[in-house]
Amino acid sequence: MYFDLNYYMICKINDDWPGYSLDLFNYPKHYSGDLECVYIPHGVIMDRTERLARNIMDDLGDHDTVVLCVLKAGYQFCADLVERIKALSRNSDHTLPMSVNFIRLKSYVNDQSTEDLHIIGAEDLSFLTGKNVLIVEAIVDTGKTMTTLLKHVEAFRPKMIKVAGLLVKRVPNNSGCFPDYVGFEIPNHFVVGYALDYNEYFRDLNHICVISESGKLKYKV
Ligand code: HPA
Ligand code: MG
C-alpha cells in the first residue's frame, strides 16, 4: 500500500484552528478571563467518543476486556467511552464484557512535564495476565508517559494491549508513540477541561479549551 489507511482516519485539528469564541458557548463563570477559546466543544467530544466506541467494539468485541483508566485526567473520557461501549453491548449483536480499573500517573507541574513520573496504584497488575487490556488516556504528547506505562503493563503479560487516547498532541519530541484509537490530533497548545487540568483547576469545565496567559498566571504554583 502507498499509505497507511489509518493516517487518513485521524480527526486532525490544524495549527491555524482558532477555536470558537467563548461567547458562543456556556461555561462556568468562575473561569471567565481564564480561557482563550473553546477548542473542542463538549458535544463534538461526545460524538467522536461514540465512534471510537464502535471502532473498539469492532476490534475487541466478544472478548473479556480489562479497561485501565489513567487518572486523573482520563476519568471523564473513560467514563463516557465505557458508557458508549455499554450502549453498543445492549443494542447490537456484539458485546464487550468489561471490568474497569484505575491507575494514576503524575508528571505535570504548571504546564511543564517533569522528569519524574509516578505510577500510583499499579504495584500489582497481575490481574492483567492473559487478558485483553484497553488503556484509556486523556492526552498523549511526548509519549513518555505512555511508553513507561506500556512497559509496566507488558511485564504482566496481557494477551493484547490497545490504547485509546482522546487527544494526541503534535509535539516536536514525540517518541513515536501513537494510540490505537485517537479522538483528536491537536496542535501543541496547553488545553484544559473535560477533566484535563492546569494545577488541578479546570477539570470542572465540559468543553476542551485553551487556557489564557492570565489564567496560567492566576493558577500558577
Ligand atoms: N493539558 C492538560 N494536561 C496535559 C496537557 C495539556 O495540554 N498535556 C499533557 N498533560
Ligand atoms: Mg494534569
TrEMBL record:
The keyword Glycoprotein does not apply. Pathway: Purine metabolism; IMP biosynthesis via salvage pathway; IMP from hypoxanthine: step 1/1. Belongs to the purine/pyrimidine phosphoribosyltransferase family. CDD domains: PRTases_typeI. Its cofactor is Mg(2+). Its EC number is 2.4.2.8. InterPro entries: HGPRT (IPR050408), Hxn_phspho_trans (IPR005904), PRTase-like (IPR029057), PRTase_dom (IPR000836). SUPFAM superfamilies: PRTase-like. It comes from Esox lucius. It is an enzyme of class 2 (transferase). GO terms for biological process: GMP salvage; guanine salvage; hypoxanthine metabolic process; IMP salvage; purine ribonucleoside salvage. This is Hypoxanthine phosphoribosyltransferase. Transmembrane segments: none annotated. It is found in: Cytoplasm. Residues 46-198 form the Phosphoribosyltransferase domain. It catalyses: IMP + diphosphate = hypoxanthine + 5-phospho-alpha-D-ribose 1-diphosphate. Keywords: Cytoplasm, Glycosyltransferase, Magnesium, Metal-binding, Nucleotide-binding, Purine salvage, Transferase.
